[in-house]
Amino acid sequence: MQIEDIQNDIIDEFSMFDDWEERYQYMIDLGKTLPLIDAQYKTDDNLIKGCQSKVWVHADLVDKHIVFTADSDAIITKGIIAILIRAFSNQKPQAILDANTDFIDEIGLKDHLSPTRANGLVSMIKQLKMYAIAYQTQLN
Amino acid sequence: MFNVDKIRQDFPILQRQVNGKPLIYLDNAATSQTPQQVIDVIVDYYSHYNSNIHRGVHTLSQEATDKYEAARNTIQKHFNAKHAYEIILTAGTTHGINLIASGFSSLLKKDDEILVSALEHHSNIVPWQMLCEKTGATLKVIPMNMDGELVMSVYDKLLSKNTKLVFVNHISNALGTINPIEEIISKAHEVGAAVLVDGAQACPHLKPDMQALDVDFYVASAHKMCGPTGVGMLYGKEAWLKKLPPYQGGGEMIAEVSFEKTTYADLPHKFEAGTPNICGGIAFGAAVDYMNAIGFEAIAKYEHELLDYATAELLKIEGLKIFGTAKEKTSVISFNLEGIHPYDVGTLLDKMGIAVRTGHHCAQPIMNFFNIPGTVRASFAFYNTKAEVDTLVSGVKKAKMMLS
């Protein structure tokens, strides 16, 4: 599936919720499905700066596609990173670099996008794109 | 007569909604809200007499100078300093601390010691580390116990003839502990050390008396006590302020300048280089007047009731643990829910219109001591109500349910 199609699926799912409680409950549930990072990669090097909670992200290249795994000590943060990983994992590096992140607005998480927010959503997106740049360079 | 409903009408911000819910503001330890009486003073300044002070012959400048100096007198009386010129108007608590740290860099030498408490805001530890690096002096820490109280028996042992300065907060921002500063000051004086007290968290709740405390330096911020941000005060005993060199060079702080030599201005101008926060200083005075009109005894009594009520109600929630259980504490409750990250709780509370602080509260050493990533901190002011405490408690219960 293309990134854009996955993003549209996520938007559809979130559009079913009437209020913040259902939206956050869904995010919390998504957090529980996050593809967890292997313990050996849970290092300070893989820690994303700028988050009030700890977030670790790791990326592997499998058949020219990037596979992301992650973890966090806060469950809402896990939910946010799970949504990002669902959109960007198992994709080619170039597709990740080309993708926009407007869907974040549309699922009602816009207030998390500001760079000054403590959850570091912006830092997480930047980190996923950095991995894509690194692997794209390797593929070239 | 203390009437919280009437007091709340003074604060326009308390009428607003957040995320569709009435705002419940419980982040008062970070900054307090501003009453209309102080907002009016700010508007009046910019509407009627905005001008630079201390040098103009024109009417506006004289009006502004009079009001600025009147504010200094108000602050002097409030803190019961002996002289108005012992009150230096600063950009805030951090500025005051850095001013003293910088001044001491010319007084300290190798083998001298500075004592700081384990309850410090970590940004307040940095100026002393820098000072020690510069002078070769040593930084020693007064430890705390599991209740978040300073261990005074260790303090006694740490004090020696090498101790030159003791730095301690009056009240801890992270835990709300009220430190025994009277004892800390008198014991430091026995060995000839000076004491600087960070009063940022204390001044919203009590009225410290500089002469009775016999403290050498005391710093505070206006924005924690119903005033604007970017202004604060440093009290220093006259003898100390005369001994310390100026902090910054610039206008206002000089008497005479030639290329050969500059003579510094008298106190307090020696430490007030450049154009100060004139409006902020005047509004600071208005904030002090506002709080005194309500009365600090009434404020302390009411906040204590709120603290006791909130503590009892929150502790009814299973798995909730309060950090900072000192016998003497102010209206700050730092807590965690077992197995739940404070950030998650804070995020959900925000969705319910409840403003709390989450994280390490700039006190990482304290969080490391308790081995936690941070806490949720609810801090109450005299304009909060028991009904707001009830909403907080039900909000925490809801967050717990959603996150478990």
TrEMBL record, chain A:
Source organism's superkingdom?
A: Bacteria
Chain ranges of the Fe-S metabolism associated domain: 12-130
- A Pfam family annotated for this chain is SufE
Q: Which InterPro entries match?
A: Fe-S_metab-assoc_dom (IPR003808)
Q: Which family does it belong to?
A: Belongs to the SufE family.
Provide the protein name.
SufE family protein
Q: Which organism is it from?
A: Bizionia myxarmorum
UniProtKB/TrEMBL annotation, chain B:
Task: Fetch the SUPFAM superfamilies from UniProt.
Answer: PLP-dependent transferases
> Record's superkingdom?
Bacteria
Q: Name one GO biological process term.
A: cysteine metabolic process
- E.C. code: 2.8.1.7
Cofactor(s) needed by this chain: pyridoxal 5'-phosphate
The record's Gene3D superfamilies line, in alphabetical order, gives: Aspartate Aminotransferase, domain 1, Type I PLP-dependent aspartate aminotransferase-like (Major domain)
The residues the entry assigns to the signal sequence are none
What are the residue boundaries of the Aminotransferase class V domain, all occurrences included? 24-392
Q: Which reaction does it catalyse?
A: (sulfur carrier)-H + L-cysteine = (sulfur carrier)-SH + L-alanine
Q: InterPro entries from the entry?
A: Aminotrans_V_dom, Aminotrans_V_PyrdxlP_BS, Cys_dSase_SufS, PyrdxlP-dep_Trfase, PyrdxlP-dep_Trfase_major, PyrdxlP-dep_Trfase_small
Q: Which GO terms describe its molecular function?
A: cysteine desulfurase activity; pyridoxal phosphate binding
- Keyword terms of this UniProt record: Pyridoxal phosphate, Transferase
Q: Which CDD domains match?
A: SufS_like
Record function comment: Catalyzes the removal of elemental sulfur and selenium atoms from L-cysteine, L-cystine, L-selenocysteine, and L-selenocystine to produce L-alanine.
Q: Which PANTHER family match?
A: CYSTEINE DESULFURASE, CYSTEINE DESULFURASE 1, CHLOROPLASTIC
Q: Which family does it belong to?
A: Belongs to the class-V pyridoxal-phosphate-dependent aminotransferase family. Csd subfamily.
What name is this protein filed under?
Answer: Cysteine desulfurase
What is the species of this protein? Bizionia myxarmorum
